[in-house]
Specification:
InterPro entries: DUF899_thioredox, Thioredoxin-like_sf. It is built from 7 helices and 10 strands. The chain is of the alpha+beta class. Strand 9 and strand 10 form a beta hairpin.
Length: 242
């Protein structure tokens, strides 16, 4: 359906009204960002070990000499054949940002429970360069509430996005983003986590589509998204990140 067609003067009046809301949203985003930076921190005392192409590493090692670490909880379970479509969509936007993040004292790492060989194969398929490690055999994904055992899913509720939710709304793997800080003493602190649609602003394609005439043009959250090498196949399955 086509929108109402009006004169340039009427359009300008409507656009100015929208601009006021856009400025309000920008100010609100600035306020939210400030509140995020003011969050208290939690010291990470547990020892986590990850499998990486360079061998076994601790959480502190993943900082790669920087003081800030962003961990993307990528949905790729031990028995999955391919990575989550939605996580793949977000990850398509990471490589170009890496030089800017690294030179701003920030390291980006994807973490999945799949074994390293399965991660490497999917990473090669997608053509990505960002660091991606395995937490297989570690409690890391479970402690940060992005992985759920069969026992978890058999309970009345599971804890995701800071809220108890029905297992029917969960999965063995779910998406998220966590931030950590490492001080000069080598101590590591958990500073922030975001789940579900929380990391959506990292997906530049969505921000561009929001400004197109039809917007996201979706029937459900990101149901139009495919892995970037599957569009010609017109896959029917919706994104698993929603």
């Amino acid at each position: 359906m086509q929108n109402e067609v009006v004169s340039r003067e009427e359009w300008l009046e409507a656009r100015r009204a929208l601009l006021a809301k856009e400025k309000e949203a920008t100010r609100l985003r600035d306020s939210v960002n400030a509140a995020r930076l003011a969050l208290p921190w939690v010291k990470v005392d547990k020892d986590y070990v990850f499998e990486t192409p360079e061998g076994r590493k601790s959480l502190a090692d993943l900082f790669d000499g920087r003081s800030q670490l962003l961990v993307y909880h990528f949905m790729l379970g031990p028995d999955w054949e391919a990575g989550c479509t939605g996580c793949s969509f977000l990850s398509d936007h990471v490589d170009g940002a890496l030089p800017h993040l690294n030179h701003h004292d920030v390291t980006w790492v994807a973490v999945s429970r799949a074994p390293l060989d399965k991660i490497a194969a999917y990473k090669q398929r997608m053509g990505w360069q960002f660091p991606w490690v395995s937490s297989f055999g570690s409690d890391f994904n479970f402690d940060y509430h992005v992985s759920f055992s069969p026992e978890d899913l058999a309970k009345d509720k599971v804890f995701y996005n800071f809220t108890p939710i029905p297992p029917a709304d969960a999965n063995d793997e779910l998406p998220g983003l966590s931030a950590f800080y490492r001080n000069d003493k080598g101590e590591v602190f958990h500073t922030y986590s975001s789940y579900a649609r929380g990391p959506e602003e990292l997906v530049g394609t969505l921000m561009i589509l929001d400004r197109a005439p039809k917007g996201r043009n979706e029937d459900s959250t990101m149901n139009f998204v495919r892995r970037h090498d599957e569009y010609e196949e017109a896959a029917k399955a919706p994104s698993c990140c929603h």
